[in-house]
Amino acid sequence: MLDIRYIRENPEAVQDNAKNKGYKVDIGQLLQLDSDRRLLQQKVDELREKRNENVAKIKGGKPSEDLVSEGKRIKAELADIEPKLKDVEEQYTAILKQVPNMALKDVPIGQSEDENVVSKVVGEPTQFSFTPRNHAEIAELRGWIDKERAAKVAGSRFAYIEGDLVKLQLAIVQFVINTLSDETRISEIATGASLNINTRPMTPILPPLLIRTDIYDAMDRLEPRDERYQLVDDDLWLQGSAEHVLGSMHSNEIFEEADLPRRYIGYATSFRREAGAYGKDMEGIFRMHQFDKLEMESFTVAEDGTSEHMLFVAIQEYLISQLGLPYRVLKKCTYDIGKPNASGYDMEVWLPGQDKYRETHTADYMTDYQARRLNTRVRRLDGNLELIHTNDATAFALGRIMIAIIENNQTEDGHIVVPGVLRPYLGGREVL
Prior knowledge:
- The protein is an alpha+beta fold.
- The chain has two domains: 95 residues, Helix Hairpins (Orthogonal Bundle); 314 residues, BirA Bifunctional Protein, domain 2 (2-Layer Sandwich).
- Helix content is 41%, strand content 20%.
- It has 14 helices and 16 strands.
- An eight-stranded mixed beta sheet has the order 1-11-12-13-16-10-9-4.
- Helix 8 crosses helix 11.
- It is elongated, with a radius of gyration of 26 Å.
- The protein starts with a helix and ends in a 24-residue tail after the last helix.
- The relative contact order is 0.14.
- The model has no long low-confidence stretch (mean pLDDT 96).
């Protein structure tokens, strides 16, 4: 959440930012509740101090009627004010949690995702001498995806992934983990993006797939709840992306500055209801209730947060380019970056089967918005404690990147040419 002190000092800017992001929140009401809360808290603190003084006097000897009477008066006043304070605090906290993070100054102002700005286009849409199939048609031809049997077992929008498609997914996982855990490769990517940044590699992580309600809420990734799967009896949720359980793993911890940046590459099976999908999104494995993702997460000091954001974008471009896929980079506008985000980019890869670019990656920079509620801090070299800054970004959503590989690398007879960087992980195979 935002620092209430910042909101007190910049109410108009915070209100405008909420509007630009498409969130309805009354900053005036929040500040009034904040004022009421502080006044009530002051009264409660004063009464508790008087109560303690009164108790100390009573313990010192035989209590007088005045002391007893004073004690009863204080108790009655506290019984009246404490519930009021609790009610005001609950209202205050509820509204404070609704206030979105401040967008960085270079984020385009927009009221729909159509106002995202294309900042780069790499490669041309793949051309074929034949009519290309979409991935679902090829997968059916090759026996790689079985949604009918999955529907019998788990319902719609689930699938059995089979045969060479499993091998392809595991090859992608190995390629990404080996790449991002290699400091030399991180250094090459940073240099290529003209970033003067620490090149510490990423630690591979297999995280838990479940997350507690309070932690999920503190991450500000729980909403919209109707998109999440809940285990009600256990107060747990199936995470919707690996960063939900990576960004929260250091809650209530203090990093030493020398140990930052801390970077992770997490691999997790994720779950979303994905309500409202239609058309091409329903074919094959483009939009599923269950999907596998490789997700990047990092923790930095404040002054390195923006550079880290751009490093993650550079890593995404590197990974896509290594697969030889045409793509474009979008700088997301205020409406589309999300509530906890200060900045965001999307990558869209060309899908011949849909004859359009489709989102495969996103990169999010949250500044200290998540860290404030998670209480994740860093001890600076001078000994001061500060909130850390967080970044997360897609390395690969496995289903979507396999769709891109299948559709862009297909042959007329329904085979798939394997990208060169993946061949060592497939026993040297050139074609699937």
